[in-house]
Amino acid sequence: MKVLFVDACPRREESRTLALARHFVSQLRALQPELSLTVHCLPEMGLTGIDRDTLQRKEALCDARCWSDPLVRAGRDLSVADAAVIAAPYWDLMFPSILKVWIEHIWVRNLTFVYRNDKPVGLLRAKYAVFLTTAGSRLQGHDWGTLYLEDVLKTLGVPRFYRIAAEGLDLEGADPGALLGKAMAEAEALASALCIEGS
Ligand SMILES: Cc1cc2nc3c(=O)[nH]c(=O)nc-3n(C[C@H](O)[C@H](O)[C@H](O)COP(=O)(O)O)c2cc1C
């Protein structure tokens, strides 16, 4: 079982989202000792948005099916994963831009998707993706980042998408520790459920 852990938490060791996601991953590892983990730490990976020259180079790599180039590393590592775990906080009604940059990098034609009848068809083999997030407020429907991420991953072929969140951490009178603890318990339950069903 290969798991790709995509860490898009800019505040690094101060990040509560990262703590939540690490807790989920540690539960998965405890339940599945044979699990192999690849970590993509986006703030340190040097990914940049796709500009014109990079796009031309990426398309040429896709035509040649040349998957050894670092430009397609994000897509390559995602394409061999059995599951993806993605961590990002809620920023500016969405998620940090580095996660959008990662999304630009995982659309790799002939590797993560192909066009059939003018439509993208996903080639990913991952059975599920888990998105872990925290937010200062309660989102109450303003969660386009999650919807977008789910749509991207489903289009690329990942059939199941789960979200674990701690919301309202920065509200006056909130108990962030308790809210985070509740989300961690949900993360543990999800890890157990995924292991029981053999995912
Ligand atoms: C740049 C920035 C933008 C934020 N934007 C929002 C926002 O739009 N809505 C919200 O409820 N909280 C917002 N927050 C608060 C974070 O969602 C919240 O503090 C979260 O727990 C931070 O996660 P972290 O501890 O993993 O960094 C923002 C925080 C930062 C630093």
Write the layout of secondary structure elements.
Layout: E1 2-7, H1 16-31, E2 36-41, H2 42-45, H3 52-64, H4 73-79, E3 83-87, H5 97-106, E4 113-116, E5 119-122, E6 128-134, H6 144-155, E7 160-166, H7 176-196
Parallel strand pairs: 1-2, 1-3, 3-6, 6-7
Antiparallel strand pairs: 4-5
This protein binds flavin mononucleotide.
Summarize this entry quickly:
The chain has a single domain, classed as Rossmann fold (3-Layer(aba) Sandwich). It is built from seven helices and seven strands, in the order βαβαααβαβββαβα. It has helices at residues 16-31, 42-45, 52-64, 73-79, 97-106, 144-155, 176-196, and strands spanning 2-7, 36-41, 83-87, 113-116, 119-122, 128-134, 160-166.
Provide the CATH topology: Rossmann fold
Query: Taking strands numbered 1, 2, ... along the chain, how are they ordered across the largest sheet?
Result: 2-1-3-6-7
Largest sheet, strands/sense/barrel: 5 strands, parallel
Class derived from helix and strand content: alpha/beta
Shape: globular
Oligomerization state: single chain
How does CATH name the architecture?
Answer: 3-Layer(aba) Sandwich
Instruction: Quote the distance from N terminus to C terminus.
Output: 8 Å
Strand content: 15-25%
The run of helices and strands is: EHEHHHEHEEEHEH
Total number of helices: 7
Give the total of beta strands: 7
Task: Estimate the helix proportion, in percent.
Answer: 40-55%
State mean pLDDT (0 to 100 scale): 97
What small molecules accompany the polymer chains? flavin mononucleotide
Fold and architecture overview:
Helices cover 42% and strands 20% of the residues. With 199 residues, it is an alpha/beta fold. The protein has one domain: Flavodoxin domain (Rossmann fold). It has a 5-stranded parallel β-sheet with strand order 2-1-3-6-7, sandwiched between helices. Strands 4-5 form a two-stranded antiparallel ribbon. α1 (16-31) packs parallel to α7. Bound molecules: flavin mononucleotide. Flavin mononucleotide is lined by residues 9, 11, 15-18, 89-93, 134-137, 169-170.
